[in-house]
Amino acid sequence: MKLPNLLTILRICLIPLIVLFFYLPVEYNFYYSAALFALAAWTDWLDGYLARKWNQTTRFGAFLDPVADKLMVAVALGLLIEAHGSWLMTVPALVIIGREIIISALREWMAQVGERTTVAVSSVGKWKTAFQMLGIFVLLAVPAGTTIAYAGVAVLYVSVILTIWSMVLYLNAAWPALKAGM
Q1: Torsion of the alpha carbons at 163, 167, 169 and 173, rounded to the nearest 10
Q2: Which residue in 146, 103, 101, 141 sits closest to 125, CA to CA?
Q3: pLDDT tens-place string over residues 3-50
Q4: How many CB atoms lie within 10 A of CB 142?
Q5: Which one-letter DSSP state was computed for residue 56?
Q6: Confidence (pLDDT) at 139
């Protein structure tokens, strides 16, 4: 097992710990949960960096890495929907989760028709991820309703704009293959 894949597996193992610390009735539980989320987000960057630098990309890693990312983000957003209990959090969370499902399905279909590289990760997708991770980190770290929480929501809304933009880019790139398959 290569280190980048181990880091991806570590990210998946951190997800239940993020949830556990989020709900633990201890002082600073939000900070612990946010710190674990930050560690998981860092492993996302690190595993990709190391896999490319050390030429250790694998099909297993290419499969598992996006699954780990989507699980981490969806679980964290679920926690935040409950904590905030507001449409201001629910709407961006559902847009983000919905986009992830659509793009995952699109990538799977494009791989089946031999066009997976058509929907490779773009720079907009990387910025989307950075803003998502930052917004989620901030929102996990502070109680709902605080000024900093509203700043975190604003960052999350920036990520929603990038989320929709990247989805449109992926769908446009895939459109010829989609149209041919209809």
Answers
A1: 160
A2: 103
A3: 999 999 999 999 999 999 999 999 999 999 999 999 999 999 999 899
A4: 18
A5: -
A6: 97
151: tokens are: 């700043």
Query: In CATH, which superfamily holds the domain spanning 3-180?
Result: CDP-alcohol phosphotransferase transmembrane (TM) domain (1.20.120.1760)
Contact present, 53 and 110 (Cβ < 8 Å): no
Cβ–Cβ under 8 Å, residues 91 and 161: no
What's this model's pTM, rounded to 2 decimal places?
Answer: 0.92
Amino acid, res. 180: A
Residue reference for tokens 């209809």: 182
Q: CB–CB of 14/73 below 8 Å?
A: no
Structure token digits, residue 118? 């058509």
Cα distances (angstroms) measured from residue 46 to each of 7, 41, 122:
8, 9, 18
- Residue 117 burial (10 A CB sphere; 0-12, 13-18, 19+): exposed
Three-class DSSP category at 62? helix
Alpha helices in the chain (DSSP H): 3-23, 29-53, 59-84, 87-112, 123-141, 147-180
Nearest to 95, CA basis, from 113, 107, 77, 108 = 77
Using the Cα atoms of residue 74, residue 106, residue 161 and residue 68 in order, give the sign of their dihedral.
Answer: positive
DSSP state of 86: S
